[in-house]
Amino acid sequence: MAFEIVDGMTGTKHISSDDLAALNTATVGKADCVLKYGDDFALTMASANSATLGTGVGMVGGKRFWNQAATSLTIQSGTQGQKRNDLVVARYAKTSAGIESITPVVIKGTPSADTAADPEVTANDLKLWRIPIDGINAGAPVKLFDPVTPLATLGDSVSRKSYRVSSSDGRISVDVCVEVAGLVFMTGRINAYESGWLSATLTGCPKAKGNAGVVFCRNSVWKAPAMSGTLGGDGVMSVQVTEAVSNNEYWSVTYLKA
Judging by beta carbons within 10 Å of its beta carbon (0-12, 13-18, 19+), is residue 1 exposed, middle or buried? Predict the structure, then answer.
């Protein structure tokens, strides 16, 4: 069937592992990955011939798998004067009867007197760790993956937060101050009919990664640059108006939050 409901009852058994793999890949954005969970498959060397793979969740070809408890792996002994790279992978397999599995496999590299190279992997392997072996000694494992960011964390990163910013002079107002995904947008109005300097301090601004200058929104009666300011790393903005402006001139500034 070209068009199929997966999360629904059809009256017959119709959901296959390929259905779920397609949906998993579409949801996560990649078919082969480690999902952030448990120990994130942390690998520790118990000895030169034994490693322990921690708990975690991942996908190979969109098929999810779960290591529920620490798993011991055997590392073949090295050779004096030789270097070797072994890889720890999660390998997907399917029998002729259609039975599927994903298991941890240690792929032994080829010993070399010079620089060691990683062994070949298959399209059904998700690379997790490299174990560098020098002589009979196993070095610190090297992680070969970055866990996919959970949706909950991604939601937090793009959330919107509003701030209340106060001005020391009522002729310079702050109407809106919001942060979205680390980017701060602040806008307000100025009312300065007389010529000359007008200074104000805006407090409560989100702290900036660096100094930020004020920029203007032009309207039909605005004639010349009249306002300048600097937002320091302490979250306080100093503003100066150097020329007379009309009622309700708008100003704005956008910057990265510290």
Answer: exposed
> What percent of the chain is predicted at pLDDT more than 90?
48
Q: Is the pLDDT of residue 254 over 90?
A: no
Please provide residue 255's backbone torsions phi and psi, each rounded to the nearest 5 degrees: -155, 170
Segment 145-161, tens digit of pLDDT: 999 988 777 665 566 78
Q: What element of type H or E holds 59? A: strand 56-60
Closest CA to 23 of 50, 45, 4: 4
Backbone angles phi, psi at 119, to 5 degrees: -70, 165
Q: Tell me the backbone φ, ψ of residue 23, rounded to 5 degrees.
A: -70, -40
CA neighbor of 190 nearest in space, from 241, 235, 231: 241
The CA-to-CA distance between both ends of the chain, in Å, stands at 52
Please check the confidence at residue 12 and state whether its pLDDT lies above 60: yes
Q: 22-26, long-range: CB within 8 Å, 24+ apart, which pairs?
A: 22/62, 24/59, 24/62, 24/63, 24/64, 25/59, 25/62
SS3 80: coil
Taking residues 106-112, what's their average pLDDT?
Answer: 97
Cβ-based neighbour number of residue 244 at 10 Å: 14
